[in-house]
Design the sequence.
């Protein structure tokens, strides 16, 4: 635990920016290849100092490899509870998690991050059972990557996927701690390729690199994403229904026939979009119904 301006007591080596914010630079694992090129020459190299200087993050950890950024973020938040928003970034995840039992594959060159945010900042987005926090993150991801993907159709699949040209580009996992803090995990397929991806992802996922035949600067992408997240949270506080309306405008499922599994119930209906409170709207034989959770059957 380190206080601003005090000696570092944390077992990790720490540095402070001129803003007094805290950085944990984790020693590199010699088994993991890391580029030694300057950041401006290597788009994959993350400039964590710049991230702290240009965003609302109070503390940041950058790891070459982690099992899961969400798991590490939970532990780090417990170690220094006053230092939020807290950012954890990993160049590689070995056990990334998705919703339910799903796993998140992190290929070399992708962006994997988790952000711990206080409950107060998300008060307007925290409605009972509502997926508004996940949708806010999805909106932020779309607004970050869409300008880098000209000519491609980018949008949201409710409640936590970002899709480009019909294939999954990014995923979001939001977990709530006992003190109501939220851990917002985001994985974006930026500079990775699908060459080493599991076979089941080959036809369903895509990456920014493969869509554009170009590399994208990880630091700039992360800074932009954090800025979009803050804007989404602030806008939600001022206009609580804004996230739902914005997500509805970006929803790519309008008019599609969807089958949703919710507990022991299976519901099929035509998608009517996303409601202002974040609910998925399905037009079923019983009429229009609202759903705040569930798993799609493909």
Sequence:
């Amino acid at each position: 635990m380190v206080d601003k301006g005090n000696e570092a007591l944390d077992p990790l080596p720490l540095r402070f920016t001129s803003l007094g914010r805290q950085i944990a630079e984790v020693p590199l694992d010699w088994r993991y290849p890391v580029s030694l090129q300057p950041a401006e020459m290597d788009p994959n190299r993350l400039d964590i100092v710049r991230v702290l200087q240009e965003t609302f993050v109070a503390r940041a950890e950058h790891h070459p490899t982690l099992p899961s950024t969400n798991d590490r973020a939970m532990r780090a938040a417990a170690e220094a509870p006053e230092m939020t928003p807290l950012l954890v970034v990993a160049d590689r995840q070995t056990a990334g998690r998705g919703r339910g039992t799903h796993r998140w594959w992190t290929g070399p060159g992708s962006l994997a991050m988790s952000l711990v945010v206080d409950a107060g900042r998300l008060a307007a987005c925290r409605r009972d059972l509502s997926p508004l926090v996940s949708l806010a993150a999805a909106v932020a991801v779309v607004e970050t990557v869409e300008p880098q993907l000209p000519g491609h159709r980018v949008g949201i699949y409710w409640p936590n996927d970002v899709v480009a040209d019909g294939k999954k580009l990014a995923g979001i996992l939001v977990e709530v701690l006992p003190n109501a803090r939220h851990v917002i995990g985001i994985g974006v397929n930026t500079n990775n390729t699908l060459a080493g991806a599991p076979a089941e992802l080959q036809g369903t996922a895509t990456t920014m690199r493969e869509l554009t035949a170009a590399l994208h600067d990880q630091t700039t992408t992360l800074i932009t994403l954090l800025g979009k997240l803050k804007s989404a949270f602030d806008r939600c506080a001022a206009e609580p229904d804004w996230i739902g309306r914005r997500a509805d405008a970006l929803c790519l499922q309008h008019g599609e026939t969807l089958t949703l599994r919710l507990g022991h119930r299976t519901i099929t209906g035509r998608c009517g979009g996303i409601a202002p409170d974040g609910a998925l709207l399905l037009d079923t034989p019983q009429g229009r119904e609202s759903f705040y959770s569930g798993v799609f059957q493909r």
Q: What stands out?
A: The chain is about 20% helix and 25% strand.
